[in-house]
Design goal:
The chain is mostly helical and 102 residues long. It has one domain. The protein has four helices and no strands.
């Protein structure tokens, strides 16, 4: 079995990559979509928010939930905590870059 820290690392990395892709689309929305209908834009934004919650939830909880159901409760909790730890580390690094580049 692959170590929890490795799975947690790649799950957290997946979240950061997904957030970067969403940010890229949002930063270039005017160029991509032009002046869109405000009502449709709000619906699209809320749909994207819902999709993001589902994607991040799947990346954080998917494998631990599967492991928990398979009876590997300690390993599931460990993987969950490893994922949160890696995500916290990536977040701290990103905030560090923001502080250094102000």
């Amino acid at each position: 079995m692959v170590k929890a820290s490795k799975i947690g690392f790649f799950s957290a990395l997946g979240i950061v990559v997904y957030a970067a892709l969403v940010s890229l689309v949002m930063n270039n929305a005017n160029e991509l979509f032009g002046h869109a209908n405000q009502y449709l834009s709000q619906i699209a934004f809320l749909a994207l928010l819902s999709l993001s919650a589902a994607v991040v939830g799947g990346l954080v909880l998917g494998k631990p939930f599967q492991m928990y159901l398979d009876g590997k409760k300690k390993e599931a909790v460990s993987l969950f905590l490893q994922t949160i730890g890696w995500l916290a580390a990536f977040t701290a690094i990103l905030i560090g870059f923001l502080v250094l580049n102000k």
